[in-house]
Amino acid sequence: MIKPVLAVSYFSVFLAGPVVAQQSQPSAMALAQAQDRCMTTYAVRLSRETQDDDVIYATAIGNCSELDAELVAALDRELPPETADKIKMQMAEQAKPNFMSLLGKIRADRASKASQ
Question: What gap in Å lies between CA 103 and CA 50, rounded to an integer?
């Protein structure tokens, strides 16, 4: 015998249609980490080649631009305008020097491992 409660539950689910989870937007922190991983991935991969550092940086920036745009949008969404603008300015100023430093560390690590 079917219990009426179960029959009503299945019936109401049928009428409601499929359950679709609403996608949440990633936080600025999560996007910053993803963007950092993206840039690091390109630094590691491209520094194996004999490309100029500026070419490596430009390639990484170009390939991580979608994440960067999402990060900027998240900052604008989550923070007051003056705070978001300040953080975006700092990010822009520090992006290339930090990336060049990362390239140097990667190459030094490779050289150290190669000499062992």
Answer: 12
Quote the tokens at residue 110. Answer: 């490779």
Radius of gyration of the chain (CA): 24
Distances (CA, A) of 58 to 77, 83, 116: 27, 27, 32
What per-residue confidence (pLDDT) applies to 89? 97
> What digits encode the pLDDT tens for the residues 54-96?
999 999 999 999 999 999 999 999 999 999 999 999 999 999 9
* Placement of tokens 């490779």 in the chain: 110
In the block, tokens 């949440």 appear at 24
CA–CA separation, 81 and 60 (whole Å) = 27
